[in-house]
Amino acid sequence: MESIKMKVNGKDYEFSIGRKFGQIPPNETLMTTLRERLGLTGVKEACNEGACGCCTVLMDGEAVTSCMLLTVECDGRDILTVEGLKNPKTGELDPIQQAFIDHYAFQCGFCTPGIIMSTKALLLKNPHPNREEIKEALSGNFCRCISQYHVIDAIEDLAGIKEEE
Amino acid sequence: MEIIGSREDYKYIGKNVPRKEAAGIVTGETVFLNDFSLPGMLVGKALKSPYPHAEITKIDISRAEQLEGVHAVVTYENIDPSIRIGYPPIKPFLSKRVRYVGDMVALVAAETEEIAKEAMDLIEVEYEQLDAVYDCVEAIKDGAPQLYEELPNNMAPGGYLPYQKPENLFWKLNKGDVEKGFEECAYVVEDVIAFDKKTAPLSPEPAGAVCKYEGNNKYTVWGATQSGYICKIISGMSIPGADFTINTFNIGGSYGNKQGITLVVVASAILAKVTNRPVKFYNSKVEQMVAFDTRLGSVLRAKVGMDKDGYIRAIQGDWLIDSGGVANGTQAQAAVGLGEAQLMMSKCENWDFESKIVVTNKTMAGCVRGFGGQELNSCLSLLFARLMKEGNMDPVEFYKKNFVQAGTQYTWRDGIDWTCKSINYVPVMTTLAEKYDWKNKWKGWNVPTWIYDDGKKVRGVGCSIIGNGDVGEDNTEVYVRVSPNMFTDDARIILQANCTESGMGQRSNICKMVAEILNVPYDSVVITPPDENVNPNGFGLCGSRGTITYGRAVTDAAKDIKKQLFELAEPHLLVPQEQMRLENFCVVADTKPGKSIPWKHLIPENLTLTGYGKHLETFATPNFFMIFVEVEVDKETGKVDVTNVYGGSDCGQVIDPAALELQVQGCFGSASLDTALFEENIVDPATGRQMTYDMLEYKWRPFNEFPDLDCCFMNSQFDTFHFKAVGVGEITGAAAASATMQAISNAIGVQICEYPATPAAVLRALGRV
Q: What's the whole-model pTM score?
């Protein structure tokens, strides 16, 4: 494999694979590529073993922990990071981002990008999840400040279940 | 969350206002330490000891040094031996002797992390293993393995000069007559209780620092610390004569744990000096968990007595504090623990009680939210529970009798006697107990609230309290500057405060306070980055101090501005100052309709108007938190589930309801409530290695396991500062572990005293294994 193609936040990239300077070595994780080559530092590095969800991004609409994927595995994939959520032209926030602000759904904010991306994946599949479905979808995301209650409230509000009830 | 009681009607105070950092956090644009770099920056890593106690017999760095891209390899053989950590500073930063698994053996600076790791693999080390000791009770016995020549019986000296004057060193309390005190007691219990699993605060962002050496022993640090000033002091104590300038970023969680961040700051400083390049030293998650500050271990060996009326009258014993491989200011936590114990037993006049700080061959302990008080209370409260059971006392009534109130005296962590003022938490105890329906839920000691039909599952409730006087600790100063807009009549208000942000929202809250006093939009107030050279001195955030300390400083600085504006307006408005107010960036004359003057016409062109405010340390208004926990226990399997949690306090004026509620919900995090259930660091006794070394092995509560939680605050107007508030965030989980143990004991019918109450521990308490 000499190169791979990847779409990241709507933009097409082609990366050269190899061990020479500037190339992506086969052992580089998607997290490292996103953070260090594309400057997408909203992808947070933390546990490096898929346990905390801080590095969560979407790959073809599915939430994945980018520390557990090699970039060479992502040929032809469509990647979305937290930086790709807001409208690039108007700056308008994604409704999830706005709901997190409106509900004070974070404290230190380190795990927030990962939680928001897990939420994005959930809502793409299930626009009206109930409280249990929200909790289950976020069970791979760590938050030690304990913003879980506010996060669940924010998503529940967004999902519109409360009003329907 | 419910807030009860009358209060002033403010524009911003007491209302939710979006955090200044909100948009940056949800878009991923906020910069944390690991997102920051300097030109020419190298990566620093440390080779760690695989043994809990060993002497290095040979170390060869030649192959590592020759690896391309390696800039420095530092070991005990080529380090400046005057660089030492701990209090007293006796542990050489790198030494021939290693004292815990994860103790640093060599430092490497390289072009990339990969090269640094490869270089570490090329360092050849031979060790001679020594006997190790992991238990603080064993460590102080004669014949136990000794960690330091300077610490006979592995005990560090008590007293802490950064907190105390030499004449007031404070590590024990001897007063009254304990023998006589016990004679007056109707109930006396004596036991050894341990809360010693040295749990992990586990901030999502590990500790890290970038350091640039400026020459002449001066260092500039960009650090992930919640208290830049504390980091400066501790780092300066480690490298003799060094002058550190500390800058901080948004902090990815700390919970009191990332303050001194001694290991990462000193390591980066050493490497920056020898390479003359900026060096980033950033822990991996595993390094954070095995080689960075844990919660301290706590073993209480005490006899406590209560009189027939339910007042604690005497205590005798000692409190062993396991600080792991080095005591790094553990004395400060001992002093706060002793202080908090006095708040809990404020009517007790007879004390023969001593803290003993012990070093063991485990990862070093540091400060964590709770800061000594939580660790001692988690033990002490179980003895209180026994006394209450003996005396058939309702815990709520016990707390009302024994917790500190205005007028009571106690010795605080500065070794000085303080008299409590203004606060009284009895009304809120009554209110919270009523709202939780405690009288109906609590059926007596070791009696379940209810039992399922099959008799296998039982529920029980528990209630614990805690309080801390540190809420007014350390002097702090700020500037508020008014910078008029050149083209319009409004102004920018610049708050210069060395105040960090690690999730509590305090930077935004102090902007709210300024906006409230100057009657300007919140958006017009900006706060400078936590850069030590830009701002006057501020201790940062710890011990819930921010509300009172920054609160007083910023409100005084804003009031200073107001006073200056009124004085400047007098010749223009021709009314006395009492008849002036601030509105729309103008001084308005109340008694002359339509008469006002814009601030910009009062301030010389192109200049700013500066106000100054300061807070001077006080320990006279302790905070308080009460927590109720209900659990369901499966008596067949021993599994415990928390079914609901209810907590609250009287925190004076609520500053930001959402931030306050989040602090309460944080009672589950940072090694608090769940230290009663499943959080523990497990050390393999055969190898001394921590088996809970990462986030897969260490147990933590995921999103789908949170029980119902609610809280309630009273809104009294305490005499603290302009906005009459008391910070309470630190301690919301500090009594949660002991409340949980009480709830489990009540559910299963026997007292359980083994932290954490894992299924095996519950079955042991039931006598079934």
A: 0.97
